[in-house]
Amino acid sequence: MENKVDIKKINEKIEKESAFIDLLRSEMNKVIVGQKNMIDKLLIGLLAKGHILLEGVPGLAKTLAINTLSKAISGSFSRIQFTPDLLPADVVGTQLYNVKQSKFSVKKGPVFANFVLADEINRAPAKVQSALLEAMQEKQVTIGEETFMLDEPFLVMATQNPIDQEGTYPLPEAQVDRFMLKTVISYPELEDEKLIMRANLENTVSKVKPVVTLKKILTAQKVVRDVYMDEKIEKYILDIIFATRFPEKYNLSDLKALISFGASPRGSINLALAAKCYAFINRRGFVIPDDVRAVVFDVLQHRIGISYEAEAENMSSVDIITKIVNEIEVP
Questions:
Q1: Residue 79 dihedral angles phi and psi, to the nearest 5°
Q2: DSSP class of residue 294?
Q3: CA nearest to 321, candidates 307, 302, 300
Q4: Which of 182, 168, 166, 66 is CA-nearest to residue 125?
Q5: DSSP type of residue 121
Q6: Where are the strands (E) in 120-200, listed by range?
Q7: For residues 126 and 326, which has the higher predicted lDDT (pLDDT)?
Q8: Last residue in a domain, options 218, 250, 272
Q9: Does some domain include residue 194?
Q10: How far apart are CA 148 and CA 50, in angstroms?
Q11: What is the reported pLDDT for 1?
Q12: What does the pLDDT look like over 225-250, one tens digit per residue?
């Protein structure tokens, strides 16, 4: 009985603390039409202190989305356009020599912002990618001999063009794994695109106002971890993760040859946390199986290695996850 009372209490607390989500959504929807999935995933990344990799062809409002989010939260925003000739110092900053004072001073790079857009991250060489990834992982940057902590909240949204485009370098697996979510953006629906086209032609695109404070976001990042997760849900998450490693134990022997490596423990942590965040943005104080299913593709599609056999059979990691989710028993 006590358990039920607790859940009721948690539910009330989460409902109160998540009230700002509706404000934030409606403010973003003034500018971004028909990309509900992308907005939800951005909010999950923000609440979970994670980072997001967005993949899609140019022109799908990826840049606009994170810029709009930063304006609605009155946070600082910077954009780094990744190009083959970019240097690590262009991202994190550098030391400049001051002749008058005969000493070095630090000039901070664009990574020092609450919201950082790493545009077309797969166009830059590995050195630059790893400079950004250190900042993402450690939430700090070393310039010369000094180490600087980054501002909170700190969200990196990297965009990448589909790998088959000219002049792109695929990110190494270990680096991709640092992104909490990888979200693939598709084209808008016809009706949505009509609205986008009209708003742009008539120049009626709304201005975004700050509706949430940074302090509120920092509080929400703590509160989101209080969302209740039952042991049955934990087991469901672990079954999905373990099925990517040992499919034969889950009646999925046909996947064994298609997977070169399964999801790491980072996968299970992020799947659990993303499910809690999804419950939070839906104003609910407990996780249900649908929350896990809503985020499972974004959390796992970049964490499963597919073998040459899978490529030969035209099977993607999304197809593999679909088979796993359809097979694993829902609590």
A1: -125, 130
A2: H
A3: 300
A4: 168
A5: G
A6: 140-143, 146-149, 155-160, 181-184
A7: 326
A8: 218
A9: yes
A10: 19
A11: 33
A12: 989 999 999 999 999 999 999 999 98
Length of the chain: 331
- Give every CB contact of residue 45 below 8 A, 6+ residues apart in sequence: 51, 52, 155, 157, 180, 181
Q: What are phi and psi of 128, to 5 degrees?
A: -75, -40
Question: Could you tell me if residue 14 is inside a domain?
Answer: no
* Closest by CA position to 49, among listed 210, 235, 180, 213: 180
Q: What mean pLDDT comes out for the span 197-204? A: 76
pTM: 0.87
Same domain? 272 vs 183: no
For position 264, which CATH number holds? 1.10.8.80
Quick one: which of 136, 325, 135 has its CA closest to 244? 325
User: In whole angstroms, what is the distance from residue 199 CA to residue 247 CA?
Assistant: 49
**C-alpha distances in Å from residue 172, one per residue of 121, 122, 130, 152, 305:** 12, 10, 10, 27, 11
Residue 267, both tokens: 């996968």
Q: Are residues 173 and 235 located together in one domain of the fold?
A: no
How far apart are alpha carbons 125 and 105 in whole angstroms?
27
Residue 125 lies in a domain: yes
d(CA 182, CA 184): 7
Contact 88, 43 (CB under 8 A): no
| Amino acid type, 180 | M
Give the pair of three-digit tokens for residue 236: 């469901």
H or E segment and range at residue 115: strand 115-119
CA distance linking residue 124 with residue 86, whole number of Å: 7
Residue 273 has which token pair?
């946390």
- Report the half-sphere exposure of 121 (CA within 13 A, side-chain side): 31
Q: Find the domain containing 271 and state its range.
A: 227-327
Q: Tens digits of per-residue pLDDT, 17-28? A: 888 888 888 888
Q: What is the CATH number of the domain that holds 114?
A: 3.40.50.300
Give the DSSP letter string of 14-50.
HHHHTTHHHHHHHHHHTT--S-HHHHHHHHHHHHTT-
Query: In total, how many domains does the chain have?
Result: 2
Task: For residue 227, give the nearest of 42, 46, 36, 18 by alpha carbon.
Answer: 18
Whether residue 88 is found in the same domain as residue 148: yes
